[in-house]
Amino acid sequence: MNHHSVRGGDKRARILESALKVFASKGFYAAKVADVAAEAGVADGTIYLYFKSKDDLLISLFEEQMQQVNSQLTTALVGAISATDKLQRFFKAYLGMVETHRHATEIITIELRQSAKFMKDYANPRFAEFLKLLAGIIDEGQASGTFVSGTPPTVLARAIFGLLDELALMWVTTKGDKIDIRKAADWVGRLVLEGLERRSA
Amino acid sequence: MNHHSVRGGDKRARILESALKVFASKGFYAAKVADVAAEAGVADGTIYLYFKSKDDLLISLFEEQMQQVNSQLTTALVGAISATDKLQRFFKAYLGMVETHRHATEIITIELRQSAKFMKDYANPRFAEFLKLLAGIIDEGQASGTFVSGTPPTVLARAIFGLLDELALMWVTTKGDKIDIRKAADWVGRLVLEGLERRSA
Amino acid sequence: MNHHSVRGGDKRARILESALKVFASKGFYAAKVADVAAEAGVADGTIYLYFKSKDDLLISLFEEQMQQVNSQLTTALVGAISATDKLQRFFKAYLGMVETHRHATEIITIELRQSAKFMKDYANPRFAEFLKLLAGIIDEGQASGTFVSGTPPTVLARAIFGLLDELALMWVTTKGDKIDIRKAADWVGRLVLEGLERRSA
Amino acid sequence: MNHHSVRGGDKRARILESALKVFASKGFYAAKVADVAAEAGVADGTIYLYFKSKDDLLISLFEEQMQQVNSQLTTALVGAISATDKLQRFFKAYLGMVETHRHATEIITIELRQSAKFMKDYANPRFAEFLKLLAGIIDEGQASGTFVSGTPPTVLARAIFGLLDELALMWVTTKGDKIDIRKAADWVGRLVLEGLERRSA
DNA sequence: CATGAATGAGACTTCATTCAT
DNA sequence: CATGAATGAAGTCTCATTCAT
Hints:
The structure is a homotetramer. Chain A is mainly alpha-helical. Helices cover 72% and strands 0% of the residues of chain A.
């Protein structure tokens, strides 16, 4: 009988999973380390055997989650040829994850922002990766002439992330009847790819 | 002659202004009430003559700032005729404010999100107003046939807010050479109104 | 029109009256000076024109109330001849006052005790007077042979005060159907004068 | 071997003991939680591992002390046959405890009263038990014809408690030469059982 | 490795008291 | 005399972190 495996997963992973749930439901500041420990079924002190501090726990959570997000997005793009196709798949995959990874979405959309303030030095490399992936698609589209040039891909990537992120936030925080987040991918696709204005002819 | 005026502005306004500065630079949670008091040049207890609690201070700040934002946006739209024109002015005005109201932007972009978590019951009516203003423009454009129909205006409004908000956040948090936030209004205008794809003919 | 008389009474008296009401209903520690001021319809600062401190307000209240109690008791004894008669009148008068001066009773029964602790040096001369009055009756009874000797009158006086005081407290704190406080005077009279044991013959 | 025992007594008991001492000497309101912690030799925060709040500490103190008082009184009555005997033993035991449990006496005589005010809902069940014990003796005496009937036992019990309580308070607060509290039991016994008046024959 | 009782720095908030008007 | 806004000392309580077991 292995002490370290309880309900199929090593302790570090279980703590991370619990932190995800607790931070998402109470917010990072309101959540207590003891809450995370209780959720994970370990002693308070045990947290500190795997993470340097409460902040470190949050950062590790980002790392893990964003890595998953990036990996799934990358997978989703496999086989796509045109930039247009890639972008549509990107939207669909991202907003699809919102539904399947509720808690992760809350952490990313809400706490990621605070991080800019409270973790002055944390560079957030995974988010950078995310943006790079998105900017790469746009760059490719602009280079191939499929997309209009003139706006820096990094800015567009950021704008598009904000757009997706806000829809995710809306979906996550709405109590009653939510929008269909999967339909939203199409709406966003139309908005971004075709624009709002009716084409003249 | 106002008994309560001390160097241009009553005390409540001064405290609010100081809270804006302090919360923006340290984040709401890291900021101490004593910091705000010191910045405002009043005693700690004085804060509580004007605000019920630290939370109330943050909420009041939102109210005030969002009200200003809404009022400036409304002003900016005066005289605009088409929905397209209104939307462009909206972008220009919003991103213009980012530059002139740096601190307010930080509060709105960063702390507004947390509010969803920590202030369960705070409805944030000013933000609702903001969205209504934006959705109104889109609705008008769709009704007149200028804008493509099919996507709910409320969803589009939210998406566009996210987009603007993210650019504002990017601008605010970038240390070195920032993008030209005023140019960004045009970029965003093009993205939203015309879309990314090159028009076929 | 006299500024100092509002609703028939000078300001000092009004403050004292308000303090009585407020202290009685919330307790001295829970009561705020501002509460007393509000009740009296004066500004907070005004309290300090008449009393040195919150403590002084409580002490002054004791003085005033005990003086009234003593004066009424003294009046009640006028015309009584025997010690027995005096004691019965004393009981009747004391417990009668409990009903007519509810708030004063609460202050005396409850806060008087605390005073022993929090006002190390306050001698409480009025309470001393009260005890002297009661001890005087007992002493007189013992001297005349009406009362049994052997127990120091000061001790008996104190014991009897405790007895009356506790009944007063019971009456004051009971919410539902209270005992008839006036009947209690007779009960106490019987207990003290005749004792519990049935007389043999 | 008990992990939690530190020099004879678990931490909760030590804190309670320290609270007894500190509250008795400074009064509940004047006493700081830090004082209790220092007296107990623990950190301030440790108090809150065992008690919900400062109020809870006081209530727990009451519970514990009154329970001890009740238990000792019950023990003292074992073997007594007549109501008269029981009452005399009750007096002796109660006033004896005053001397041996000085601090507890101060808490009970002084702070118990305040509790009526500041703890609106705290029912104080131990004190109710105490009164029931006393009223039981009186009821028994009345039923057997040993004691005079006519006065409700609950009222008499309360009156007698007040009497004992006041003597205890007198003894506790007197600085110089105190009365002999053990003699007082006889004095009280005489007063209550035989009354003040000299028996006619 | 794991525990969880203990720590203690520090935050928010209250409120008696002052003093300029 | 009266006001009441302002003060700021001080208290209760929280909670991330440690360390002896």
